Automatic annotation (TrEMBL):
InterPro entries: Isochorismatase-like_dom, Isochorismatase-like_sf, Isochorismatase_domain
The organism of origin for this protein: Cisticola juncidis
Annotated ranges, domain Isochorismatase-like: 98-246
Similarity annotation: Belongs to the isochorismatase family.
This protein's name: Isochorismatase domain-containing protein 1
Length: 281
């Protein structure tokens, strides 16, 4: 399969659950392979991790670490694998690398979810803040045909995506495609219902893709406070950041001199509910 000299060689590049056929110049080595992985999967690769490139060895019928001095001279299959667990995140947030996920804040849940009125108020505050700071918002609705649309109090003006779903996790192909269109996404701010089902499953899938997840404790709830409490504890142990709406918004502006600081400050003052949820984290 090797070219007679020069030219390109077909290579299958694998990362996580993805596999994409491409090609590299004949004689390409480690550095060019890394560059190709970044060009193909840069939006999914968490640069806080270390990786190793592995080559599929036919004689062993499995992947092996890329041999020292390896160059591509025939068709092959390579994959990028995390070398170690993610370095402890500091939880820094910047508007340019953040996306808000609003999960299933629907009318049918109103009578069943504890403190639903409070999380509606906080969710609306977060979405207003997102609009002020130019942060993309992705919204899902769980089986809206049967459970209704997002509550009227939540203003979805300017949302990048509003998507129906039947899967509990928000990580759908359409959501992954939307994230891929946003350069440099590192952090997801996640809120909605239910904490122990859709929020939990979404958060776990997102960190599995190398994204940092911030769950807004005063904007997420369940029918049962026990389910909510144990879900937040479990998620915090996995490295997910459990925080509050005020902390999120002020971290995003970061400085009193930020041009949107006064508007964010007024938003917090005007709409902060006295929620009992924070005593039940």
């Amino acid at each position: 399969c090797a070219p007679a000299g020069g030219g390109s060689v077909p290579v299958l590049f694998c990362f996580s659950v993805f596999a994409r056929p491409s090609s590299v110049p004949h004689g390409a080595g480690y550095e060019l392979l890394i560059q190709k992985f970044l060009s193909l999967y840069g939006d999914q690769i968490d640069m806080h991790r270390k990786f190793v490139v592995q080559l599929f060895a036919e004689e062993w019928s499995q992947y092996i670490d890329l041999p020292k001095g390896f160059v591509v001279n025939e068709r092959c299959k390579v994959r990028l694998v995390p070398l170690q667990i993610q370095i402890t995140t500091l939880g820094n947030l910047t508007p340019s690398s953040t996306v808000f996920f609003c999960c299933d804040m629907q009318e049918r849940f109103r009578p069943a979810i504890k403190y639903f009125g409070d999380i509606i108020s906080v969710g609306q505050r977060l979405l207003q803040g997102a609009r002020l700071l130019g942060i993309p918002v992705i919204v899902t609705e769980q089986y809206p045909k049967g459970l209704g649309s997002t509550v009227q109090e939540i203003d979805l003006t300017g949302a990048k995506l509003v998507l129906p779903k039947t899967k509990f996790s928000m990580v759908l192909p359409e959501v992954e495609a939307a994230l891929a269109e946003i350069p440099g996404v590192r952090s997801i701010v996640l809120f909605g219902v239910e904490t122990h089902v859709c929020i939990q499953q979404t958060a776990l899938e997102l960190i599995g893709r190398g994204l940092e997840v911030h769950i807004v404790a005063d904007a997420t709830s369940s029918r049962s406070m026990m389910d909510r409490m144990f879900a937040l504890e479990r998620l915090a142990r996995t490295g997910i950041i459990v925080t509050t709406s005020e902390a999120i918004l002020l971290q995003l502006v970061a400085d009193k001199e930020h041009p949107k600081f006064k508007e964010i400050q007024n938003l917090i003052k005007a709409s902060a509910p006295e929620s009992g949820l924070l005593s039940k984290v």
